[in-house]
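Async update (no meeting this week)

Hi team, since we skipped the sync, here's where things stand on the single-chain job. The sequence we agreed to prioritize is pasted below, unchanged from the tracker. I ran it this morning and attached the output directly underneath so nobody has to dig for it. Comments welcome in thread, and please keep replies under the output.
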Amino acid sequence: MLSSAHLPGQCEISEELAAMLNSFPKKFERVFQTTYASISQCMRKLRKTTALKLQNPRILNITFKSFRHFGGSWLAHVAEGNVIAVKKALRYKRVENTMKYIHRLEFKDQQNYDVATATTVEEIKQLAQAGFQKFDDVNGIHVYRRLKKYTS
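Output:
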């Protein structure tokens, strides 16, 4: 059951995926017969196994909510603090609920970006293919940036 802080969500699926799902035997009302409890049990077992294998007890602290918080924080970072975009993606009813993802991030830190410029259509195409997004125009020069790729 969804909490009152969230809106129900539905995603559009392709006709191909719908056909695949409809090809399953119709023994039950639901396509995948599972419960939250069984998924939660699988996650606990996976966490325990992974924590032992990697010798990292902090993995035991990961929850389903951890994934939502990470995704919301990353979306807030990519959207440069656009509260409405994050609110809509996470299906919150109130902006106040979204702010927990926004307030911790620094969005204008240029050290996190690769920056490039373009003056011709060909240069613009190359930057777009490399994953850059237009950021600004300065005296007819188009300024592009992309988040730096992090390596661990």
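Quick observations from my side:
The mean pLDDT is 81.
The longest helix spans residues 36-54.
Reply here if anything looks off.
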